[in-house]
Amino acid sequence: MKSRALAERPIASDSGVLTAVADFTRCALAIAQAEVRKLLRDPTEVFTRSVQPTLWLLVFGQVLGRARAIPTGAMRYLDFMTPGILAQSVLFTAIFYGIAVIWERDLGILHKMLVTPAYRGALVLGKAASAGVRGIAQTVIIYLVAVALGIHLRFGILPALGVLVAVVLGSAVFSTFSLVVACVVKTRERFMGIGQILTMPLFFASNAIYPIEMMPGWLKAIAKVNPLTYLVDALRSLMVQGGESAFGYGPDLLIQLVVLVGLVLVASRLYPSVAA
Q1: Domain ranges in the chain?
Q2: What is the pTM for the complete model shown?
Q3: How confident is the model at residue 3 (pLDDT cuts 50, 70, 90)?
Q4: Is 272 left (phi over 0), alpha (psi -120 to 50) or beta?
Q5: DSSP 243
Q6: How does DSSP assign 71-140, residue by residue?
Q7: C-alpha angle 134/54/171, rounded to 5°?
Q8: C-alpha torsion 240→245→249→250, nearest 10
Q9: Which pLDDT belongs to residue 271?
């Protein structure tokens, strides 16, 4: 009888783990679906946030492309910077995502979520997944602008899937980072100030608009710990013809995934505190 009981325990344990994983996934998808519905009801936000990256391509890229002040090898500068501008669009959209949590707290929605038995990590991951959907919408817009400008893009199922994976993962990283900031500052005014302070250093301390080789030593060190650098590196190798990855597509995604897991763990612990 003892041996039979011992044999049955792992089965019960495995069943419990599978149930927990299914519940976690179901909760995360429910949160993501609710957030995507908000986007579908008001899609103007996606288009308004695409104005800035479009201007970067139309104005900044055209001017510096003629100046030829930045060495990009055989690749045109406009082609070189297009993946960086897509990454910029992902960053600028996701970094202010945390303000929605503060709004939810003020409206009482956050309190209702926190009294449910849902996993806190699933709530965080669901919001990160919905940010990925916004990132995909930005990707479509940037691709359309790039085609209109005659940028030499790579077309194909595998490059397109690779770009989507990188964009979703990058959106999840920066939206979760935004959520951590929102949990710490807890007010809209402070959050907006910190968000504006963070975006430009993250953007300029990356390889988005110039190669890392041009940077001074101290800036290179910062760029190599900046998640945006690895997002740009992955996009550049997949998105444009002649683009090469300095770190490798696999390491680019792995580093972002590790950062995302760490941020989700931190945000899961801080998430209830924002309602206080």
Answers
A1: 2-275
A2: 0.83
A3: very low
A4: alpha
A5: -
A6: --TTS-HHHHHHHHHHHHHHHHHHTTTTHHHHHHHHHTHHHHHHTSS--HHHHHHHHHHHHHHHHHHHHH
A7: 25
A8: 180
A9: 67
